[in-house]
Write a structure and sequence with these properties.
TIM Barrel, five-stranded parallel beta sheet, globular, about 475 residues, four-stranded mixed beta sheet
Length: about 475
């Protein structure tokens, strides 16, 4: 039996969805994109182009919900299936778009460079419990106008896993689409085997900027999956109550689904988000707060009620170092997210309110993810009945270490973590140098990068990717890209 946790009753879920629909139909949504407003008007929405505002209708919402896929799959660079976003299937991916990394040598934050990103991509390629990569942080050694496409470019070069990405400018989509086409070959193949998911974020309360709404449209035209990342802040940019915040989150996400499905019915989407409470003491948005984690799990229930696969920013920490707080918040979030069945769990590696990525934390979080994935497999009998023969053998042999039953099921029944997790006796731990968590995690980072296997995409494809990226860089005055080490 798969263990499951829930926070909302069926009746409460239905009421939240009803209220959100009423908000969209009576209060409406601001969309700063004339073409989208025109399309909505064609479908019967009341549109005020002067105020960039529209009132949706139940018919429009129903139409969008009738075409949005109930599941979809994701594929790696080589075209092999890696994700099946359906039911309670769970996958982990690093958090995205951090401005800083936690330097492994100084343990201080700094702005990352190209070499850091390459190291990250190599590391992610070897972390078995993190199913996809993300464009995790922003290298400072390229022009800001190409930072979105450049991160995608490096990810495609150095790691075969599919990518969670996004664009902060409307102009970035074209090159990011072309980079994907260089991998897949044709628009049809890209639609058949998507290798990215774009994060598209409405603005609270209930708004879509020109850039983010255009990203939704552009992705829909190419059948590129999107995850809607609504970010209401309880008590600040949303009602202080969790239910009130969920109503707003639902309205914002439904409005994104409408934009997507009216552009291209059947475009895959994830019902996602990154809501948080607002801590008035420090004027911060704690992602590790228990109420924030409850919001993530709850909106996941709403997404499942609507019938759409889900995403959530959870399993991350507000701590500034790899410390006890980081472990507490990340492991609690991963556990709740897995038990809730959030399909795409974003967060591993992140610290400091989504501002910082840490390689050492990624290694630790990989173990946390492994434990969470084992947990949701639940407890099932494996040749356990009848029990008398096993216990007879135990009484006779005094142990079951080498019994046939043990050897058949040991590796599947137990999750065995890597060296980052200390399970040695105190005596052995002391004999081996009393190595700290940070030191163990750092050793694993170095080992994974040292043992990295290069991506198997053809060299000709790598050259095509580089040529596309160089052309884009020259558009913004960069005559050459940073030197890339193999």
């Amino acid at each position: 039996m798969r263990p499951v946790v829930r926070f909302l009753s069926d009746g409460l879920v239905e009421r939240i969805v009803e209220e959100a629909r009423e908000v969209l139909c009576k209060l409406g949504v601001q969309i700063y994109n004339v073409n989208i407003l025109t399309r909505l008007a064609d479908y019967g929405a009341h549109v005020d182009t002067e105020k960039m505002h529209t009132l949706l209708t139940d018919e429009i919402i129903d139409m969008a919900l009738s075409t949005v896929p109930r599941s979809f799959k994701l594929y790696n660079i080589l075209g092999h299936e890696t994700h099946n976003f359906s039911g309670y299937n769970v996958y982990f991916t690093p958090g995205s778009a951090a401005l800083y990394i936690l330097d492994s040598k100084t343990k201080k934050t700094r702005k990352p460079k190209t070499d850091d990103y390459i190291m990250y991509a190599k590391l992610i390629s070897r972390l078995e419990n993190i199913a996809s990569q993300s464009t995790a942080f922003i290298p400072e050694d390229v022009h800001e106008k190409i930072s979105d496409s450049y991160r995608l470019y490096l990810s495609l070069l150095f790691c075969e896993k599919p990518i969670i990405t996004g664009a902060f400018t409307a102009g970035a989509f074209a090159i990011m689409k072309d980079l994907q086409l260089a991998i897949r070959g044709t628009r049809q193949e890209l639609a058949a085997k998507p290798l990215t998911i774009f994060s598209c974020c409405p603005t609270s309360p209930i708004k879509w900027s020109d850039v983010t709404s255009q990203n939704v449209v552009d992705c829909a035209r190419y059948s590129i999956p999107v995850e809607f990342v609504s970010m209401p802040l309880s008590g600040f940019m949303a009602p202080v109550t969790l239910v009130g915040t969920l109503v707003q989150h639902t309205a914002e996400t439904l409005s994104g689904i409408v934009i997507s499905q009216l552009t291209n019915p059947g475009t895959p989407v994830l019902y996602g988000g990154s809501p948080a409470i607002f801590d008035v003491r420090y004027e911060t948005t704690p992602m590790g707060a228990v109420e924030t984690q409850m919001l993530d799990c709850a909106f996941n229930e709403i997404g499942k009620y609507i019938g759409i696969p889900t995403q959530g920013y959870i399993s991350l920490s507000d701590a500034k170092q790899l410390d006890s707080q980081a472990g507490l918040e990340s492991s609690m979030g991963a556990t709740l997210a897995a038990l809730s069945g959030i399909n795409n769990i974003s967060g591993p590696g992140m610290l400091d309110f989504e501002n910082c990525q840490s390689f050492e934390k990624l290694v630790l979080d990989n173990e946390i993810c492994g434990m969470a994935l084992r947990m949701i497999e639940g407890i099932e009998p494996k040749e356990d009945f009848p029990s008398v023969p096993h216990l007879e053998e135990l009484i006779k042999e005094k142990h079951l270490l080498i019994s046939n039953h043990t050897r058949r099921h040991f590796k599947k029944e137990f999750y065995i973590p890597g060296p980052t997790i200390d399970r040695a006796s105190r005596k052995r731990w002391q004999e081996e140098g009393s190595v700290t968590l940070w030191e163990r995690a750092h050793r694993e980072v170095e080992k994974h990068v040292r043992e990295y296997t290069p991506s198997r995409i053809p060299d000709t494809t790598k050259k095509d990717l580089t040529k596309l990226m160089e052309i884009e860089a020259r558009r913004y005055g960069m005559n050459r890209l940073p030197q890339i080490s193999p």
